[in-house]
Amino acid sequence: MKNILGIGNALVDVMTIINDDKILESFSLPRGSMQLVDRTQSENIKNGTSDCKKSLSSGGSAANTIHGLAKLGNDSGFIGSVGKDETGDFFENDMVSAGVKTFLTRRNSITGTSVAIVSPDSERTMATHLGAAVELDSSDLNPDFFKPYNILYLEGYLILNKPLVIKACELAKANDMKVAIDLASYNVVEANLADFTEIIEKYVDIVFANEEEAKSFTGCSPLEALNIISGMCEVAVVKVGREGSLIKRGEEIIKVGTINVKSVDTTGAGDLYASGFLYGYAGGFSLENCGQFGSVLAGNVIEVIGAKMDETRWSKIIETLQKGFNEDDQL
User: Check: CATH 3.40.1190.20 for 4-8+59-105+134-329?
Assistant: First the structure.
């Protein structure tokens, strides 16, 4: 199986359950979006939701995907930047305990956090203070980090540091690695469309996008977007929520459904879909199997709060992937 290296914003997620969406309006947070906030606004949001049920976990889009891959048994690594604080220690310990090899630069700034606000219908809205995460620099990318790996996975949020993305991609290609990227968030795509287009056309082999991100990137419906994106890379994946996902490589188009679940929180669904898909891709499975693996992980993670699952659930997931799928899975 191919080894996978991820690069992304090293954050600690503050999962916050709300009773209604008024709190989103009070802090001018567009429902379902990811908004970058400064330290003061981050603290105000945390204080303003102090009465809500909360939990902590290591986070960041790419970190979630790499964490999931390690739980599946993939030899995975992660490059990121955290503070010299207890929050940074929490992030590193959580990743290492999952089996991830970490390449973390420690900064004097505080470790970044993402307040993940979960609405009653399971939609999640992210208010992210990047903190030390945003200080990850192209100079932190040691070429030796890349040598043991075969696939580089990037989160789209890194597009805000284009030189970092370019150097990472160049180091990956110098080591004959495949490059995969998730478009991250529709508003990030809208604000950085030209840069995304340039990076994907020049370096990327696999693109993950949800329906909104695909529309922001191409201006088209999911199937039309799939066709456009697949013309720019080897494999294009457009996730369409409850309808599953569309996958295209060359002239091959596959539609994969979802599994029957009771959604509690959509946080991490896209990240864990990427875990499952890349696990299949790294193992040489068919595109249909890759999509099925992605659906199994995405379906399981939305049944829990946050992007992390307990050992019992992981054991069930691994058993499912090993044995295949039964009629009730509806894939």
Answer: yes
